[in-house]
Structures are given as structure tokens and as C-alpha cells.
Amino acid sequence: MSTNLLINLSYTAAAVLFILGLKFLGSPATARRGNTISALGMLLAVVVTLLDQAIIDYRWILLGIVIGGVIGTLAARLVAMTAMPEMVALFNGFGGIASLLVGWVALAQSQLDSFLLLTIFLSVLIGGVTFSGSLVAWGKLSEKLPGRPILFRGQRLVNAGLLLANFACGALFVLYPEQPFWLFLAVVLSATLGVMTVIPIGGADMPVIISLLNSYSGLAACAAGFAINNNILIVAGSLVGASGIILTNIMCKAMNRTLGNVLFSGFGAAGGTTGKIEGEVTALTTEDAYYVLEAAQSVVVIPGYGMAVAQAQHVVKELQLLLEKNGCEVVYAIHPVAGRMPGHMNVLLAEADVPYDLLLEMDEVNPRMENFDVAIVIGANDVVNPAARETPDSPIYGMPIINADYARTVFILKRSMASGFAGLDNPLFYRKNTRMIFGDAKETLGKLVRELST
Amino acid sequence: MDLVYLSFILILSVFLGFELIGKVPATLHTPLMSGANAISGITLVGALAGAGGEGSMLTITLGTLAVVFATINVVGGYLVTDRMLAMFKKKAKVK
């Protein structure tokens, strides 16, 4: 059997393992096995590629794999669960730059036709956008860059010009491949485009952009696959590209916005009115909150990004255990865009050992919201804002929300009366059944836990 | 012919991807994303030929850099996904 045949048969096997891996990732019971299967597929693909006769020197490969392996292992082991969004963004960016470099290397091939040159350009373009975009996302998520949208006059015009410049550069690159200038320009332009795409995205829109960048990293690998005529790159890359696009779509739907709107509008800076809000804010001490909770039969916890910031997930779990001991049912209601990446809250609560079957999705919890004695909103704001349901001229009108206001009593754990990410006032805070418990969420919950455990 | 064949693979994989991911529950969105991200490190396979080939110094340097970045993506991605998934537990039926 020739080496080439062996390699291609193994690639087929690797593709099957990736597909099975993704399939098993679809259920919590099998997800871990799925990830292992997919990793085995990757191992198979890499090992069998080393048999390729075109590879004559293993020293640099070994060096690269050792360096990358050590960095990757350390990063994966050491990162705190709360820092997961920025970690995912960073890994994503590395995948992007790797595809950019693979495209660049492909330029050294002997026979280059226009189609090949076009795919090389595309791997550089998408890889570059993924890399610089992911770095900006990483900076925003880890708060090394301001999380608010960065907007300026004529931004759309600049971006449209940049996109055109990219395409023009691509055309010139395909026409004059012997001139390295066009390739360098393509690298610079794509990196600039990545930065410009992500800077107008505000914190709460991060789940959308992270999913989108995830998709791009797959598409970059896919383009690189065309550039080096390798079908496993195309299969794996397009699987990732498709999954990223689906996630992006789910996130957009959860905010009732189109992708274009997220990318170009810089939501947070828009401001807007919620109309007149009636009623007044009622504050509650933790002591009084304790009496309410002690008598409650059922409690729903609605976490948001604030829970991640306060790192309150462990104390939430303690509260859950004490309430359950008291004969109270406790569930969690998770909005699809709560936090800074898809499924952010689920990961944090899993870290605190909260069983995943207590985490209900919006559509499961809303129909039975009236039956909860208490809804505890921890660091969430826009995802429980009833203006999305009631005020047609509100910027978030139409966004599906968790109807916390339908619960008998609503506790809002909040530092102060500052408005949420969208810069909107939240009518929920002024409802008759709403009680505000001001202070750091972790401390407040800690006090409640102490009261309940005595 | 190559182009037709590769496009054929592309289109089928995209549809397969849509089918596979459409069913993932929201609770697994983060591990799914980070697991998919690890798969996108498949570009490592392409980087190997550059780093180990008989090309110029430039090609080898670029290839080696690509190997480093792609390996971080692959190793880190799979490990971090595994770490997350190890935490997902179902409620015990018997108390």
C-alpha cells in the first residue's frame, strides 16, 4: 500500500472521528467522550501526516510541537474558569494565525494557478481577521482594553473602504504573485480589518462575536486546505465553520437582532429611551430577605455576567443546598446570551458543582414563572428587562427575556442603581413585587447563607 | 477535477456540520465552541509540511511558527474542553 493511500485513508478515519466527536458533544452524558474521540482523530491525522515523503527534516517540527504543546498544556491547566471566555478567544486567534502562515507557506509551491492563489489569499485574509479580531476580543474580555464599544464618525465608511482595499489587494496578489508586496499588504489589511470589526462590539454582544470568530477560524483552516490541496483541512475546517455560524445565529436570535445589526450598530452607545417608568424602588436588607427565603417553597436563580464578575457561583451553590435542605425547590434559569460567551453561566455553575439538570433554558422556565415564590436575579439586567416585552420603542424591544417579573417576589442583587450594558433603565426594578438588595453579590449571598445555616 | 472534488467535500461537510450542531443543548455551548476550536487547529497538518519540507529558510521559519500556534490551539483547546466537561455533573437520583 502506498504511503499516499495510507495517509488519505487515515484522513478519512480522522474525519469520521471528528464527526462522531461532535455528535457525542451534543449530550452532556457523552460530551467528554466525544471530545476525546475528536482528539484521537486529530492525533491520527497529525501522526500519519508525518509519514509524508515531502517531510524530510523532523527537527523543526519537533521543536514547534514541544513549544506549542507546553504552552497549550500550561494555559489549559492554569486558566481560571472565570477567565474561560478570553482563553477561548486567544486559542481561536492562534488557530487563525496558523492558517495565515500555512497559506503563506503554500506560496512556495512550484505550480501556482489563479485558483490556488485565490485560496492562498483567502487563508491569509480570514486567518488574519481571525487572529487580530480574537486578540481584540481577548483584550476586551480580560479588560485589558475598554469593554465598551469604540465608535467614531464615518466608521462604516472606513470599514467599507477597508473591505474594498482587501479585495483589490487580493486581485493584485492573484495577478502579480511574484511581487511579495501584495502579500504583505494583504496581511496588514486583514489584521486591520479584524481589529476594526471587533472594536465596535460591546461587552454584552461578545457571545455573538466569539461564535463568529470561532466560525472564521474554521473557515481559515478550510481555505488553507484548498491552498495546499488537503481534504482533511477542508472537512474539519468546514465542520467548525458551520458550527460557529449556527452558534452565532442562536446568539443573534436570543437578542432579537441580526448579525449585521450586532456588527455595525455599536449597541451600547446608542442609548435610547424606555419611556416613562412608574413606581419606586424598594430596597430590602439581607435579614428581611432571609425571612422571605426561609418561607419560600420554590426559588429560581437568574444569573448574569455580574455573577461571573463577583465570582459568586460557589456561594450560590451553598445557598441552593441550604434552601433544598429547608424543603425548597431551587432551579436556575439561563438566558442564552447571559455572560460573555455562549454557555458562560453553565460552565461557571458546573465549576461550583451545580448539576446541569437544574439549569433550565428560557423556554422551559418562562411558562412556570408564576409558580416561583422567589426569583433571585444575580448580576443580570437586560435579559430580565420587561421593556423588551412591553415597550415598543425600547431598543431591546422584541428580545426574548426571562420573565422574572412574573414570579411572586423578585430579588435583585445589584451593586447600585447603575443601568445595564445597554444603558437602559430597567422597569423591573420599579415593580411592586421587586426588592433590591444592594451590595456585592457574593457578600450578600454569603450573609444569606450564614443566616440560613444558623 | 480537483476543484470539483474538493468543493464537493466542502459542501457536504458544511451541511453535516449544520446537522450535527443544531441539536446541541445550550448548556454545552461553551465546551462545544472550545472543542470545535480545537478541531480548527487541524491546520497543524498543513503546517507540518512547511516546517519539515526542503523549502527555503523563510518557509521553514513560517512553517515552524505555524506549528507552534496550531499546536497551542490543538493541545490547549482539547485539554481545556476536557477540563470543563469533567465538571458537568448530573444530579444524583438517590439522595
Task: Write structural notes for this entry.
The complex is a heterodimer of chains A (454) and B (95). Chain A is of the alpha/beta class and 454 residues long. Chain A has 2 domains: 79-264, no CATH class; 286-453, TPP-binding domain (Rossmann fold, 3-Layer(aba) Sandwich), CATH 3.40.50. Chain A has helices spanning 3-24, 31-49, 59-78, 84-106, 114-141, 155-175, 180-198, 206-227, 231-254, 259-265, 267-270, 286-295, 305-310, 313-325, 344-351, 362-365, 387-390, 441-453; strands at residues 298-303, 329-334, 359-361, 374-378, 409-414, 434-438. Chain A is built from 18 helices and 6 strands. In chain A, strand 4, helix 17 and strand 5 (409-414) form a beta-alpha-beta unit. Mean pLDDT of chain A is 89; it is low at 267-274. Chain A has a 6-stranded parallel β-sheet with strand order 3-2-1-4-5-6. Chain B is mainly α and 95 residues long. Chain B has a domain at 27-86. Chain B contains 4 helices and no strands. In chain B, helix 2 (29-40) runs antiparallel to helix 4 and helix 3 (43-52) packs antiparallel against helix 4 (57-87). The mean pLDDT of chain B is 89. The chains are: A alpha/beta (454), B mainly alpha (95). At the A-B interface, helix 1, helix 2, helix 3, helix 4 and helix 8 of A face helix 1, helix 2, helix 3 and helix 4 of B.
**Quaternary structure annotation:** heterodimer
Assign the structural class of chain A, choosing from mainly alpha, mainly beta, alpha/beta, alpha+beta, or little secondary structure: alpha/beta
Topology, number of strands of chain A:
6
User: Order of SSEs of chain B, N→C?
Assistant: HHHH
Helix content of chain B: over 70%
> Which class best fits the helix and strand makeup of chain B?
mainly alpha
Describe the global form of chain A: elongated
Instruction: Count the DSSP helices of chain A.
Output: 18
Uncertain spans of chain B: none
Number of helices of chain B: 4
What's the story with the biggest beta sheet of chain B?
Answer: none
Alpha carbon gyration radius of chain A: 25 Å
Average pLDDT taken over every residue of chain B: 89
